[in-house]
Amino acid sequence: MSENGPSDAAIYARVSTSDQDVSRQLNEAHEHLERLGVKDVEEYPEIVSGAADTDTREVYNQLLDDVETGRFDLVVVHEISRLSRLGPTEIHEFIQHCLEHDTGVEALDVGLKIHVDDGELQQTIYSMVARLMGDLAQIEHQQKLQRIRSGVRAAQSAGKWTGRPPAGFVVEDGYLRVDPAEFLHVREALTRVDRGESFATVAGDTGIAESTLRSLHQDRRDLYLGGEAEDDRVDEALADVRPLEDVRAEDSALEELRERVERLEEATGVNNR
After folding, report:
1. Nearest alpha-carbon partner for 13 in 64, 73, 60, 68
2. Closest by CA position to 38, among listed 16, 59, 57, 10
3. How far apart are CA 81 and CA 88, in angstroms?
4. Which pLDDT band holds residue 33 (cuts at 50, 70, 90)?
5. What average pLDDT does this structure show over 202-224?
6. Domain 8-149: which topology?
7. Model confidence at 221, in pLDDT bands (50, 70, 90)?
8. The predicted structure's pLDDT at residue 273
9. Which of 169, 135, 137, 163 is nearest to 149 (CA)?
10. CB–CB of 109/103 below 8 Å?
11. Which of 7, 20, 61, 110 satisfies CB 3.0 to 4.6 Å to 15 for a cystine?
């Protein structure tokens, strides 16, 4: 580290799922380092579950290796929880690893700053504080997850749908409803597969991804072809398109289904594909 402060820094950013974005963490860390006058910054973004073993955290382990080579003066994390979820003792070990290789650590969310030129006692105190903050963040995270799970269970108990609806369905005011045109589109595609046409051919004709078609045929064939649903919420949504005949029924039965769905589309203002 130069007399004017750190010259080389690393940013460690982590999210738990691919649906989340690390850009906010990275951007705010970059702004902080820019205020410090740091020019050379290396990013270490990672997508990994908080429950994963440290052995599977390739980006995190690469950061440890690079710190060991003396590559950085400072490592910045946006939130202390990004480190605390590594385990009860991991945050302490991470800080010690950085300090042993002349690298400071800063956590932006709590204003924590542990630098190499701090005294040994001060470093020890800061490290203990960091671990306590990490434990607190871990507890708050678990409480948040519990509240989310409780909310989902409450919504499901009330008959509401949570998450992405199945193909051929939509969510209206929290409840699952059939999209007649889409439902029939999926049903006809599965009918063709059941009659012996290849997944690739049907996928190419219908525009439904082959992998999706295979999954629907394997997991939800009875839903689309027989109108059978184990989930009461799905069963309720199917009320408007019952009774559905089995896919092996005669063509006349399929034509009757088309007519029923067309009448439903007309009533709801939904256009055919």
Report:
1. 60
2. 10
3. 11
4. very high
5. 87
6. Rossmann fold (3.40.50)
7. confident
8. 46
9. 163
10. no
11. 20
What pTM was estimated for this model as a whole? Answer: 0.47
> Cβ atoms within 10 A of the Cβ of 82, count?
23
pLDDT at 115 over 90: no
Strand-pairing partners, residue 5, are: 2
Outline where DSSP puts E strands in the chain: 8-15, 40-47, 74-77, 104-107, 112-114, 169-172, 175-178
178: phi then psi, degrees, rounded to nearest 5:
-80, 135
Banded pLDDT at 254 (limits 50, 70, 90): low
Average pLDDT over the chain, rounded to an integer: 75
For the chain, give every domain's residue range: 8-149, 169-268
Calpha distance 202→189 (Å, rounded): 6
What's the rounded Cα separation, in Å, for the pair 257 and 253? 6
d(CA 76, CA 105): 6
CA atoms 57, 63, 68, 74: torsion sign: negative
Q: Which of 238, 218, 231, 241 is nearest to 161 (CA)?
A: 231
**Pick from 185, 201, 192, 203: which is nearest to 270 by CA?**
185
Helix (H, G, I), strand (E, B) or coil at 208: coil
In DSSP terms, 11 is beta-bridged to 43, 76
Predicted confidence at residue 128, as pLDDT, reads 60
In whole angstroms, what is the distance from residue 261 CA to residue 180 CA?
Answer: 6
Residues 6 or more apart from 109 whose CB is under 8 A from it?
A: 78, 79, 80, 81
Does 30 have pLDDT greater than 90?
yes
